[in-house]
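As a point of orientation, let us examine one representative protein, giving the amino acid sequence and backbone structure tokens.
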Amino acid sequence: MLKTLARHIGEYKKASILTPVYTALEVLMEILIPFVTASIIDKGIEAGSMRKVLLYGGIMLLCAFLSLFFGVQAGRYAASASSGFAANLREAIYENIQTFSFSNIDKFSTAGLVTRMTTDVTNLQNAYQMLLRIAVRAPLMLLCSMLMCFFIHAKLSLIFLAATAALACILLWVMHRATPVFREVFARYDDLNAGVQENVSAIRVVKSFVREDYEKSKFSAATEKLYRLFVKAESILAVNNPVMMLVVYGCIIALSWFGAHYIVAGTLTTGNLTSMFSYVISMMMSLMMLSMIFVMLSMSTASANRIAEVLNEKADLTDPQAPVAEIADGSIDFDHVSFSYRAGSGEDVLHDIDLHIRSGETVGIIGGTGSGKSSLAALVSRLYDVTEGTVRVGGRDVREYRTEALRDQVAVVLQKNVLFSGTILENLRWGREDASEEECVEACRLACADEFIRRLPQQYDTWLEQGGSNVSGGQRQRLCIARALLKRPKILILDDSTSAVDTATDAKIKQAFAQEIPGTTKLIISQRISSIESADRILVLDNGRVDGFDTHENLLKTNRIYRQIYDAQMQSGGDFDHSEKEV
């Protein structure tokens, strides 16, 4: 874990080295001040020498000024190093997430990844800053103060040695008890964030079903659990301060008692006792700082493990050593393919799929919910790897291609249409970055999107909010289809991507595909028979198995499932056109 995190200090190594150097110099100056104070008392005030008072007073002022200067420098470099370290971690996490396959992403919840990049990284940033400054300052101050005390009076210094040993035991106990609790706290943070994300993204559904009170109670339960865990953790940490203050005041009383005896005996001067009081305060403050470090480490250890878990996650899908960059055509072959989302565990969602699709062919895919339609489509662009068998595109196993090249030629329009904040043109150019405005307009014409875009005040320069929330569902679908067409793919997969448009518009889109991109292989997943009945062939899936693969007419005669779906839709009046709200 430490090696994984340390790699991301990067260009901030210099600041990370200079911080403890300046901190050490700051401590050295502070350690000298009590020693100089003792000289002012013993050699100046008690000796009645004003010259010595001024001399040692000037030295003390110089030490104080240098201590201030070194402290400012240490703080500046510590802030730079810790903030830079946090920025590098966030970039590294985000960059690694971009390499993940869907199976990698399935291991982490979206809320968990967000928590890791925000709360966990912030905890690590604070811990790193403390380590650079306080973790250097506190032990060094403790050690130097102890040495100065032994230099002044060895026997009295045994008091501090005993106190330090006692406090060390208390701190180790606190660390041992608090760390597991904090680990659970951050896991609960993931659950809390997941609840918030789910509620906000589905707020329309919540309000439609008047489930606000239920969501509030669910959120309250999550916050209550987090509250109890924090109380438990803080209750353990609360032991630290009272014990610390007890030891500090005990040391001061013991030092006063025994120091007075040694002064009377003539083995200790008043100035030396005064400086020892300063050193004991410094030592106790150092121990308090160390306790803060241990508390922060208790919290940050859990965060560090969670961050390292993401950074060490390797993409399941990798390119071969000599990947193929060109796809010959849009033919698709499934050779006895079986697939499970968790290889080696869990039930297969696809069983022994054996089918062959010609380049340029239009294939409709239909089946009940959970029959494996979307899973089948995901294997074509290698969003997942098969568990058994082989998927070939253009005559080659998809695992032989460079992943980027394969996905560039397999355009997918998913069930959930995703648009990004930006203009319509900017969103369209996700399909091809260098596409001209004329090419974007042509793609929108094929997707029947140009007609509603022309009615918008700023047309193609219209700004889309995050997720395309300021356009209707059907408009989002058509924009996503246009974006996919701009890639000029050899294979186009429409995963129920015209469900929000009326059947007349759906028919226009299919007709445009047939006329304008006849050489592109088209896989059309739909629940509506009217959307796929004109396809060259139709694939019927049932519980992850091929139940039929033929033309519409033949399936009506030979396939029971297809006939049932057809009859159910015809008896209910079939599909009907509806006016969608244009924005």
Summary: The mean pLDDT is 78. The radius of gyration is 35 Å.
